[in-house]
């Protein structure tokens, strides 16, 4: 039963979820152009909310040295832009 079926009528779900943490799942490096970073957003109890892909341009990528503090701060800033506090 690993098949996808169409709904007779499309469903719409509206929900508000508060994310408290994230986990870096994947970093795909694009030679000479940056990288794509996929993170999982988690709530305070570490339950998975959704996955988000963030595109890092070459100018930011070259700034990322051996210290991962830069990438943590970069991801935090991109997520704040994507999910502004209302």
Short description:
With 86 residues, the protein is α+β, with helices and mostly antiparallel strands.
Q: Overview of this structure, please?
A:
By secondary structure, the chain is α+β, with helices and mostly antiparallel strands. It is 21% helix and 34% strand. It contains two helices and three strands, in the order βββαα. The chain has helices at 58-61, 69-82; strands spanning 21-30, 34-42, 48-57. Strands 1-2-3 form a three-stranded antiparallel sheet. Strand 2 (34-42) and strand 3 form a beta hairpin. It is extended.
Q: Which class best fits the helix and strand makeup? A: alpha+beta
Number of strands: 3
Q: Whole-Å distance between the termini?
A: 41 Å
Strand adjacency order, main sheet = 1-2-3
| Helix coverage percent | 10-25%
Helix count, per DSSP? 2
Overall average residue pLDDT = 88
